[in-house]
Write a structure and sequence with these properties.
The protein is mainly β and about 270 residues long. The protein has one helix and 14 strands.
Length: about 270
């Protein structure tokens, strides 16, 4: 899913990797932990749809609706919707993101990032028209997942990537640190069964416990120690599906249990 060498080249081992599974998944959100008195309760849902192939590129539709209750009986509703398309070589990335808090007007981000030679050029339409460039080593989200799986298959435990996903105001770039655990064989069922446990597409599939920490690339730390903006933990299958989400926003932590998964047909490449 849901940051995170020569970025224009495919990840090592990607050519022999298992194809990404086109699928739609639902994750039910609940409060796992609150630090301090920031949040008393949380609930919500993520609807995640991933389609496409190595010949036509990959389309991701994502919606996260969350309701947070704070100590003063205040409820905050947030509704995040995003749709993106990324070509299979990680050279082009189109994105539209809309965020709404409570009854406020939605905030929109709309843009495209294109890799040409040693340059990545981002052209934003919203929230304002702007053109800027990214370091050539920056990767987009599907390429990020590809690289994590390739690193996991090579037995690597740590991967650092610079990731651009168009989030926030469309100008934020993340340094990401991915920590990869030992592989979990397909015949080892999760301790807490969910929709993945009975999925034919996942039953024999290897997965890895993964934690990705996202750091604001533009933020400078006085001490050299930087706190991540947020971190995501999940079990990542070698076909790109994620289960057992844990979203750490520093003040509070949200768990996302897979409630449903449906595999979709993918047109074979010609």
């Amino acid at each position: 899913m849901a940051g995170p060498g020569s970025a224009a080249k495919a990840a090592p081992g990607a050519a022999t990797s298992v194809p990404f599974l086109a699928h739609q998944a639902v994750y039910d959100l609940s409060l796992r932990k609150a630090r301090g008195n920031s949040v008393n309760n949380a609930r919500g849902r993520i609807l995640y749809s991933f389609t496409g192939s190595s010949c036509e590129g990959y389309t991701t539709d994502f919606r996260q609706v969350s309701e947070l209750e704070s100590g003063e009986s205040k409820t905050t509703m947030s509704d995040l919707r995003s749709t993106s398309w990324e070509d299979a070589d990680g050279k082009s990335y189109r994105f539209k993101i809309e965020t709404r808090m409570n009854d406020s007007a939605p905030a929109a981000v709309d843009g495209i990032a294109e890799r040409s030679g040693h340059t990545i050029t981002v052209k934003l339409k919203q929230p304002k028209q702007k053109t800027f460039t990214l370091d050539e080593g920056t990767v987009f989200p599907t390429e990020q997942v590809k690289r994590i799986i390739a690193a996991a298959k090579e037995g690597k435990s740590v991967l650092e990537l610079v990731v651009y996903d168009g989030s926030d105001d469309g100008e934020k770039v993340y340094n990401t640190l991915t920590v990869i655990g030992q592989p979990i064989p397909g015949d080892r069922k999760p301790p807490q069964p969910d929709a993945s446990s009975s999925s034919d597409a996942l039953k024999a599939m290897t997965r890895w416990p993964v934690t990705v920490s996202y750091y604001d690339r533009a933020a400078k730390s006085e001490t050299g120690e930087q706190t991540p903006v947020y971190a995501m933990s999940f079990e990542l299958y070698e076909n790109g599906v994620s289960r057992a989400l844990v979203l750490d926003y520093n003040d509070f932590v949200i768990a996302g249990a897979m409630g449903k998964i449906d595999a979709k047909d993918t047109k074979p490449c010609k």
